[in-house]
User: Fold this.
Amino acid sequence: MLLTDKVAVITGVNSGIGRKTAELFAQQGAKIAGVDIRTDRMEELKDHVEACGSEFLACPCDVRDAESVKAVFKQAVKRFGHVDMVVNIAGVSSDRPITRTTTEEFERVMDINVKGVFNFCKFATPYFKKQRQGVIINTASVTGIYGSGMGCPYPASKAAIIGMTKSLAFELAPWNIRVNAVAPGVINTEMVAALNEKQKQSFAKTIPLKRMGEAEDISRAMLYLASDWASYVTGTVISVDGGYRPSTVNP
Assistant:
């Protein structure tokens, strides 16, 4: 197994990519500190992780709140003795035109998607520096690379995450702390399910493989980055997008 006896703090585990990543990491031997502001499916995930022969710690947390995030690491270290990796998956979207996007909506997206990632990177770093190793995996998006015609807050937040990832990779490399990101394309999750049919069809035209991705496609890329197979990989953004490029849109 690729992650035997590793401890992973994973945000956004209540559903979607976060849940699949927690399940896959547990199958590969990792102990999971699962973070989410929602907890309605935590017990079910705990059962799944324990069925894999691993351990699960439920950590209700608002990723925007620094004290709440600090408490997650204290709980995880108290329970497991150490933390080896942080996987930042929690996030929200916004798809309204800029003229209909309120300042409050923009701030909410940036607070959760960017400030939340910043908080987990910041409070993981002292633990990783002390043990002189660690892994941080952030969730970006193809919209953070190419932009999107369906609302600017989400792409702006994901572009910020890419910049944060690359900068932290430089800053933390002396302590053997690797920092990478995965940039999903159109993935079949609750977030995409909320789009209307016209939006889904518009996305489909941009995908050479002519299908949406699944949460498992993203979790497998994250598993690679978390494992020793990626021991020489840092500052990288891996796109998992079915070949999506803006130039592939049919006129």
